[in-house]
């Protein structure tokens, strides 16, 4: 009856799992009426323990046979249903095409939805058998509690402890007692099973021993039935062990949850923990986490190697991820299932990339590591309006992603990493028992992202793998933004992931994440140092040309009132660097970088000018114009608090101008 009902339900979509199987009340009374005289007779002949052992073996056989028949009858129904091509893995699709399949192959050919329906049917069948077994156990226990024989008060409610068992059958003893009393009205309150003196010590001990044996065997019978059901369920999971790690999170979670419900329901009836099936479920959960992590590691490696370090627009969904992670009331329980909307998925090829069309007036100047700063300005042409159109609607996008009130420019790999981190958080919330393993995987992917980004940008590896002609200051600035963003996001990631981790295990993970956070900070500082180094190398390259340029200054016909080529080149390059970095970097980073740049300009240019041999008024005037021109440029650079002087960015070059020419440049 139950199986036919379940089979009818498979023709409708699975909107949830219902496992409440109500046994007819009349059937319960009939069962009790039939069992009571039989058990009393067996007690008189001292055969109850032996019969209960036979009953236990029968329960195991019936349980296995029922599950087997359920699988045999349900599989044709489920296999004949249309297969959702979106949720079919390669292995399962191959199995579904094979004719004359084995039972294992048929089980593997089921969709995840079909497999859940099969588990739900088995759940219902198992509950029917376990409820009947539990009913028998309650009747036996009621009879044993009412044995006549001057039993002490402590023996009236025995709790059997055997092999770590916990007797949970006492919850409805009053209900069972009242029902049995109503059906057997002529049975006295105490059941006189022994003739003669019942207060004899040997009789009392005999009754106690019989009671202990009967209670133990009745409990063992129910537990054995539960254990058999656990074994069959575990085998079904084992057959599909290779498929479950490849499922989407929401699909795996449905299987995980129904198994958890099954374990909880059967353990409540059986009174003992199902260590075997719990081990299988935990093992498959770990395999799921490991497979999902390996897929993401492979993807982030490929994405990083394809990254061209071009700024991209930020779709609204990514800003929503940041808001959810940084929220103080981040939902941990009752999490919404991850969306199946394909439109919300991030492609590896990029997210509405902003394409740069550069019109070059001068060649890029490369430094020793292949990095360079371009002397031309790049125009950014946004294509977000066309690339973010979905079903005729423009999806909201932004130029930056905001975290803690600070906007960060993003590149494609940064958005993909953010999406992956949110998926790790989802896994941790859905599988809290594996939160420790999830944090370890997050640490690994963060380490790889940081290391590989350093190799590609600072190490100029992107010139080989991505085909970039050079690593520009703009590439460095964007890399700095991504690293700074992840560095600022790590505390929120840690807070969310640590919610389900026991205190005793947090210390190790916290030290790991602290090291990763420090690595990101060091990486960001190295990028800023590289930007300063680029400007220093460009300045030194121009200073090497200064003696040759100065030769024309001493000529009597030198009436040019413009700054020299040296002064123009130096100021043009530092102005360009300032313009590029100010469009991308945070103000605090700009200040830190240009404080060092201003210091380098003051020291190196002053030293070079001090060594020049000025032999004519024309050369002296030219040098004065160059110093003034350079100082005007320095005044505009964002190097707040560079010196204690009231004049902005005051330094050695100002002192040189005042000493040699008796003049100054106002701030």
Automatic annotation (TrEMBL):
Keywords: Coiled coil, Golgi apparatus, Protein transport, Transport. Residues 333-389 are annotated as: Disordered. InterPro entries: Vps54, Vps54_C. Gene3D superfamilies: 6.10.250.860. The keyword Protein transport applies. One of its GO terms (cellular component) is cytosol. Residues 360-377 have a biased composition (Low complexity). Residues 408-538 form the Vacuolar protein sorting-associated protein 54 C-terminal domain. One of its GO terms (molecular function) is syntaxin binding. It holds the Pfam family Vps54. Residues 339-358 have a biased composition (Polar residues). It is found in: Golgi apparatus, trans-Golgi network. GO terms for biological process: Golgi to vacuole transport; protein transport; retrograde transport, endosome to Golgi. Its main location: Golgi. Belongs to the VPS54 family. This is Vacuolar protein sorting-associated protein 54 C-terminal domain-containing protein. It comes from Triticum aestivum.
